[in-house]
Design brief:
Layout lengths: L15 E3 L10 E9 L4 E2 L3 E3 L4 E11 L2 E15 L6 E15 L4 H5 L6 E2 L4 E3 L1 H11 L38 H10 L1
The chain binds zinc ion (2 copies).
One zinc ion binds next to loops.
Length: 187
């Protein structure tokens, strides 16, 4: 019984690597340098690579005895929101990728789990899952516009940067409390 369903990878997909011109002889090397559009949802909730943005692949494909080792870097822009002040973050990201993809029906294929070692489908490698993992691990779950971002005043929601140093909210005089209640319902 074949362990694999027939290849569902499209060799022309941006993040599919075609190894047909890489000899299956340990030590054989190919480099892949290309710019591809980023897939959707590449990142975490607060910060991610915009869909369709240029991803720069700078990869080395090396034949090893049981498969192909892919290593190198992928870089691209990231956009998000500061977790403290919600200001826009415009940054860039470079992740290191290093992943072994086992040949179908190799010993590695037979003896390891697919989440331990990647799998080739015929001569094709789907880089996307490894890239997603690397990007998610690299991006902060709580990104900041700058490391010491002071955030927003919890009372008025204005950025502390834009408030005078002595900014504070006086306790409302109890005699005015009713009025401030009225204002609130008008909002
Ligand atoms: Zn901020
Ligand atoms: Zn305030």
């Amino acid at each position: 019984m074949p362990k694999h369903s027939p290849s569902s990878l499209d060799p022309r997909a941006p993040l599919v690597l075609d190894t047909r011109d890489l000899p299956r002889r340990p030590g054989a090397l190919r480099t892949v340098k290309r710019v591809v559009p980023a897939p959707a949802d590449l990142g975490v909730e607060m910060i991610s690579v915009p869909e369709g943005a240029d991803l720069d692949l700078d990869l080395r494909l090396e034949s090893v005895s049981e498969g192909v080792l892919v290593s190198g870097t992928v870089s691209g822009p990231v956009r998000g929101e500061c977790g403290r002040c919600l200001r826009e973050i415009d940054d860039s990201l470079t992740v290191n990728v290093q992943e072994l993809y086992a040949y179908e029906n190799s010993t590695t294929d037979e003896t390891t789990d697919e989440d331990e070692v990647g799998r080739m489908q015929d001569d094709l490698i789907d880089l996307e899952p490894a890239l997603r993992d690397a990007v998610v691990l690299t991006l902060p779950t709580n990104p900041l516009c700058r490391e010491d971002c002071p955030g927003l005043c919890p009372e008025c929601g204005v950025h502390w940067d834009d408030l005078p140093a002595d900014h504070s909210h006086q306790q409302i005089d109890p005699r005015w409390a009713g009025l401030s209640q009225l204002n609130r319902t008008e909002e």
